[in-house]
Request: fold
Amino acid sequence: MAIAKAERLMNLALCLLGTGRPLSKRELRDSIEAYVEASGPGRGVASGPGKGAAGSDDSFNRMFERDKDDLRELGLVIETVENLDGEVGYLARREGNRLPAITLDAEEAAALGLAAKVWQQARLAGAASGALQKLRAAGLPEDVDPYESHGALEPRIPVHEAAFEPLMLACRDRRPVVFDYRKATAARPEPRHVEPWALECWRGHWYLAGWDRDRGAERVFRLSRITGRVRSRSTRFTVPVPDVVTVRETVASWAGEIADRSALIRLRSGAGYPLRAKATTVRELGDGWDELEIPYGHGLDAWLVEFGPDVVVLEPAELRADVVDRLRAVAKG
Reply:
């Protein structure tokens, strides 16, 4: 069975790499012998009235989707293209699947090993281990052990949101997605149609940066506010994907990283240490309260709400109003 699957994957990869145009599922099904055998009449298809053709199609579709995912896991870049008639085709461009020889010095190998170690307690542990095996084949020194138990650094990035994995794959494969999103000031979630660009972790929270088709603008979404299942779409992106630096700057700006003003708040003594670390001035007020001046940028209102009754915004008035609106939305449930 393992040999048969390996041969099927190899044939599919050769078809996708050898074509000069996108091939539809139907064309791939007719071109690869294993697919023809699996979906042919009387070969493992449930019998009974009306089940033959439908069962054959379902069996092929499941096998093809698994094979496509397996090839992508192995590193093959498969593009999904929709023609003018709305039919979806697939191809793997040779120029996009050709890599130069990889050489790593000791510091580069250590950095890659440390990056892989980040994910060992997260949902990408399997992918990280597989990537390390590929790096070893490409020149990662054998004496570099990224999982060494007595290492001085123990990096961890929490990934608790169910939306992380499907969004990560959608960013990788350049597939638009649809999900229900609840803003902090909204009483109920709303559907969003998004072309995902990149995921960023900031202050322990994950954010998705992408193009919001409904609003026709660049937007950032906090993954913890995505409700329900993330659904992918087979259509293509409608706008160019910015470079990595631009996306990261957008995430930082929307999450409150970039500040261009100052805000004055009251903070309960012994609370809000992240706020104290950001403060430019701190003054004791007595009665268990301190006065802090902190940088004010986009997203500060959402951050302050997380501290609940331990924070009171004094100025500016617009920030105070935004915080009050968010607290009222939370109180309404």
About this structure: The longest helix spans residues 52-73. The chain has a mean pLDDT of 79. The radius of gyration is 25 Å.
